[in-house]
Amino acid sequence: xxxxxxxxxxxxxxxxxxxxxxxxxxxxxxxxxxxxxxxxxxxxxxxxxxxxxxxxxxxxxxxxxxxxxxxxxxxxxxxxxxxxxxxxxxxxxxxxxxxxxxxxxxxxxxxxxxxxxxxxxxxxxxxxxxxxxxxxxxxxxxxxxxxxxxxxxxxxxxxxxxxxxxxxxxxxxxxxxxxxxxxxxxxxxxxxxxxxxxxxxxxxxxxxxxxxxxxxxxxxxxxxxxxxxxxxxxxxxxxxxxxxxxxxxxxxxxxxx
Length: 257
Prior knowledge:
This protein has helices at residues 2-6, 28-36, 120-128, 204-212, 226-230, and strands at residues 14-18, 21-22, 44-47, 60-66, 74-79, 82-89, 106-110, 113-114, 132-138, 145-151, 160-164, 170-175, 190-194, 197-198, 217-223, 246-250. It is α+β, with helices and mostly antiparallel strands. Strands 10, 11, 12, 13, 14, 15 and 16 form a seven-stranded antiparallel sheet that branches. Strands 4, 5, 6, 7, 8 and 9 form a six-stranded antiparallel sheet that branches. A hairpin with a 5-residue loop joins strand 11 and strand 12. It is globular, with a radius of gyration of 20 Å. The two termini are 37 Å apart.
């Protein structure tokens, strides 16, 4: 079915809006009418089944962050497929002074509210509503996090082989020797975000689409496994622990005009 091919909709998901219209309080017949308004594509806003959150709910930490004169000092990116993620911490900010806050942390709750599939405007409202925020953070993986930015010209390619495992995590499976990513990105790195697009709990097609749609300057937020964190001379090639990933081989080159 079309819903099955979409890849992320699951039984138990709550439909928040259909084609931009809030479903709160609507009858079954009214909801069916909204589905029938369009012949082809429909736009759904979903709150995912809470069972999907199980993978992110282990080893949670709760921190309270006070607002500074210029705000909290962190960039929080929301996603329809995962909890919100911290992709940047500004130097000299309240967030930077907190030793337990790191780039790559998942914020599962913001002031007690689940961030899974939270609209960005709702996250902004919660930050602006008070002088301090409570963050519930998930420590779901080990490994250092780094931001890698690559500038490409027309005809250049990244030379990446990427994949998504059965849990929806995105990985670098291989780095081709003639690509821009050589020496910067290594096999076995987990792709957390691409230009502030969170790449967790996604499908293979969604991952490839996110990368292909980026401008010449592309930034990857990557988590390095201990193997790579200790030894950056790891050979480019498939590593045993990612052989079961779905694979997409693409040089992700910028087409000529």
